[in-house]
Amino acid sequence: TGAMTNQPHILLTGASRGIGKSIHEALEAGAGRVIRHASRAKGNLVGADFAMPGAASDLWAQAMERLDGQVDVLVNNAGIFQANPLDGSDIAWLDSWEETMRINLTAAAELCRLAVRHWQETGRPGRIVNVASRAAYRGDSPAHWHYAASKAGMVAMTKSIARGYGSDGILAFAVCPGFTMTGMADDYLASRGGPELLKDIPLGRVAETSEIADIVKFCALDAPASMTGAVIDANGASFVR
User: Fold this and answer.
1) Catalytic residue at 147?
2) Percent composition of the chain: helix, strand, coil (DSSP 3-state, to 5)
3) Residue among 118, 39, 29, 108 at smallest CA distance from 71
4) pLDDT digits (tens, 9 = 90+) for 176-232
């Protein structure tokens, strides 16, 4: 189970902008046939709102239909990053926690499960790439417990899949970006004082979306099988372990 050959069939979530859009461009350049997901259907984007129960399985069914019943690679990139202040009302805090968990972790888990079962049933190899975050290891702000926890969950899930199904030719990788120049990161940088925050990044800048996309593409198409279970950091040395 080395590099992917021919034209792999790929399902990519969260592809409308930012890192996801760059991942799509990189994968298409790598000769993959990509089904792109967004929370709402638009153009060639298949819509599925992961906040709603059943959305992930609906997306999988649509991808299988469009990809002639075969998915070779699953890239879970969809996610939200919303502040959840500790002093909000109990119900607002819990609602925000559960929405972030559902979108960032549970939907990804549902798709991973469907992918693993698909590959087990067909006897084909497969690859999963989960886009997590530096926050999985370093934590995040007091308003983002839920985000950090959801991304740590993604990393633990990735390792479990790699360990559990490597003998079936099913490989799993996680990518942990730090700050990346997306709309989401721009707002965050501004809210944290911009240049002040950059002092924490030895590289002196945040990552470009194309840099994260190159790592995801490598994991999805080219990484040697022995790399399964790896977690790749991309944070400008702002967190090293």
Assistant:
1) yes
2) 50, 15, 35
3) 118
4) 999 888 776 677 677 666 777 788 899 988 899 999 999 999 999 999 999 999 999
Q: Which of 12, 15, 65, 61 is nearest to 35 (CA)?
A: 12
Quote the tokens at residue 139. 């934590």
Element (H, E) at 181: none
3-state secondary structure of 14: coil
Q: Tell me the two tokens of residue 105.
A: 């972790």
What is the Cβ-side half-sphere exposure of residue 129, based on CA atoms within 13 angstroms? 31
d(CA 174, CA 50): 20
Contact predicate 144/97, CB 8 Å:
no
Rounded distance, CA 115 to CA 122, Å? Answer: 11
The residues near 225 (Cβ < 8 Å, ≥ 6 apart) are: 1, 2, 169, 171
DSSP letters spanning 143-179: T-HHHHHHHHHHHHHHHHHHHHHGGGTEEEEEEEE-S
**Contacts of 207 by beta carbon, 8 Å cutoff, 6+ apart:** 177, 178, 179, 180, 181, 234, 235, 236
Using the predicted structure, report yes or no on whether residue 1 has a pLDDT greater than 60: no
Q: Where are the beta strands (DSSP E) in the chain?
A: 9-12, 33-38, 45-47, 73-76, 126-131, 170-177, 231-234
pTM score of the predicted model: 0.94
d(CA 125, CA 114): 14
Q: Is 126 helix (H, G, I), strand (E, B) or coil?
A: strand
List the structure tokens of 169: 């030719």
* CA–CA–CA angle 189, 192, 196 (5° rounding): 90
In contact, 77 and 13? CB cutoff 8 Å = yes
